[in-house]
Amino acid sequence: MELSGAQIIMQFLEDEGVEFIFGYPGGAVLHIYDEIYRRDKIKHILVRHEQGATHMADGYARATGKPGVVLVTSGPGATNAVTGIATAHMDSIPMVVLTGQVPTPAIGSDAFQEVDCIGITRPCVKHNFLVKDVHDLASTLKKAFYVASSGRPGPVVVDIPKDVTLPDVKIPYEYPANITMRSYNPVSRGHTGQMKKALDLILSAKRPMVYTGGGVILDGASEELREFTRILGFPITNTLMGLGAYPGTDEQFVGMLGMHGTYEANMAMHNCDVLIGIGARFDDRVVGDVKQFCPGAKIVHIDIDPSSISKTVKVDVPIVGPVKSVLRDMIAMLKETNSRPDADSLAAWWRQVREWQSIDCLHYEWSDERIKPQYVVQKLYEATGGDAFVTSDVGQHQMWAAQFYPFDKPNRWINSGGLGTMGFGLPAAMGVQFAFPEAQVACVTGEGSIVMCIQELSTAKQYNLPIKVINLNNGYLGMVRQWQEFIYEKRESHSYLDSLPDFAKLAESFGHVGMRIDKPSDVDSALKEAFAMKDRLVFMDFVTDPSENVFPMMMAGKGQTDMLLPAFCKERELA
Amino acid sequence: MRHIIALLLENEPGALSRVAGLFSARGYNIESLSVAPTEDPSVSRMTITTTGSEAILEQITKQLNKLVDVVKLLELTEGAHVERAMMLIKVRATGAGREEIKRLSDIFRGRIVDVTNSTYIIEVTGTDDKLDAFITAIDRKLIMEVVRSGAIGVGRGEKALRV
Ligand SMILES: Cc1cc2nc3c(=O)[nH]c(=O)nc-3n(C[C@H](O)[C@H](O)[C@H](O)COP(=O)(O)OP(=O)(O)OC[C@H]3O[C@@H](n4cnc5c(N)ncnc54)[C@H](O)[C@@H]3O)c2cc1C
Ligand SMILES: Cc1ncc(C[n+]2csc(CCOP(=O)(O)OP(=O)(O)O)c2C)c(N)n1
Ligand SMILES: [Mg+2]
Question: What ipTM does this complex have?
């Protein structure tokens, strides 16, 4: 087959099994767009802003586990995509971003719409490639997909100068089914000796704790995690990125840990004697002050990326390898031995954990006048039967969604944890809905975040995506206001949002259904009504209590047990 | 602690900037860096001299290994190795000083590679310590220019760093 560069790109993407391209045209990619026009196998989604394209591809990837694909033009197209690329990078999400570039002879001449895309994206990609010769195109694209989706996943940028896609330069094409890269060989199995060591430690535990993160979801290892944790009967906590990997409604689950994690999860972490970290990266929002972290614990850490191990917290037994295969091996070892952790110690430990749980740290005060944001999330859980895909933006609403919507399945909770990108929620929800047209998809957002990618409501109309937007409108950059209340003596410097739009009308102007809900008694019925509209995007603007804060709150840089609790629990904790 | 790390890098455009970018983005020190092609045209060999605690060194080597363009990596200072850097130093050499400098250069096994009425250029090779010592030995006021290559090194014995 003799194909042009543009044809090679499209033929390759088809051969690779790509379903969607999230993109936006411009001069440098017009040869490719002309080829898209001639084909119909892959669905091209025309976004309204390149940031939207990257978050959609990202949401698609988080929900399906398959790499999301983005196509943008050179210069401003590429720079607009950077926030979304960095977002995916921080959370290790597989994505392939094709950026147009000025023709090779013009590179370096400050040509029209030229930016050094490779240079700009280098620190926020897993890897990037500049293709200077059409003969390298197919193999480079294959490498990009391979690198993006293997090992610790991440975004890969392929920068393609316009002359590489010229229609009249044709070369032979064959799909490169396999590729080897001598300098890139992700680990496929854990080290047996290390696994044995870890098992000895685990079986000797008196106060064990399992702490798991996004790596379990990225590796599709939820089944293995369940089995492993159930055999051992240990308490388990998940990071913000790991929610859903272990069923949120299960008895052994003690909630999220970290800055806004539960009292019981953080207390159990602090007091455990053996900590089993699985596909989690000891992030500062989890660890707090490194010196005070898990003072009495021996730590096992399973991670595919050696650089995640002992990066912040020094661990005792590292196991480098994919979660799934390591857990399988360890489950097999567990089944071979009769030895189990001391039952009496474990029972005593559980009594302690249940006691911590009994302070009810997520308690909030009910109000007849003002809608409590937590209540909206609880009702959302009921209205969706606990089985929706929930995306979120960044702020208080994100934490409430994480705390009050227990996820029983992986890949259902989709948020920007590492970069904390406001504007992520809506386009990410769209990416999910493209992948699962029949599924219930809700975007829990705030009035601050939603306007950062609000233009994508137009894309949602064009493709008839029946997303439910749950806007927890507190009129504030609430998370910022909360920090100002606690740390800056309530000086609300630029955290109040004046002159907000009428969101219901705004949504209607985009062709969607808009609702404004301001009474607690209407929350339930409004949600039911909205979810009954199966073929419409409904924008639900909930006017919520602006003074509500997220509790518990571990102060940044402090110890794990240094938590601010609601007044109600404070009394109980003392009692 | 001073460490010398030897890397084999894919000979790709931008590979050097990935390594340099990694050091600046993560706040690691680079004391010196030297890079050139090898007998195998597909790789270039880089030698980095850095300082930091064991924990930092561990992160540096892990992060370098993670770069897709890094084919192989060895921390030379971990074992027995030979280490060399080269220096060209231009000094003012007049009157009686000329003989004095020549003598000093001989002691350090330096070679005078350029001579004018009033200057010498001396070539010295050795470890960074030796080059430092030579600079200290020469009267500061006479030094006109110093150019150093950054260390290169190779492990002793049978083992070799190659693809
Ligand atoms: C407003 C706000 C508040 C936050 N509060 C909290 C909080 O209270 N609690 C909290 O937990 N987080 C919180 N975060 C999120 C936090 O910033 C981090 O994103 C999060 O803690 C990281 O989660 P993780 O450790 O699971 O790592 P991830 O970023 O999910 O990293 C995954 C890890 O798994 C490894 N991995 C990947 N694939 C595999 C595989 N196949 N096999 C083995 N290992 C693999 C990776 O190498 C990496 O080390 C908050 C974020 C925001 C924006
Ligand atoms: C792009 C971006 N800019 C700034 C921030 C800092 N930030 C974190 S939370 C937050 C407030 C978000 O407000 P809103 O969306 O209304 O959510 P709320 O906290 O009120 O629920 C801000 C400004 C961010 N995370 N992302
Ligand atoms: Mg708000």
Answer: 0.94
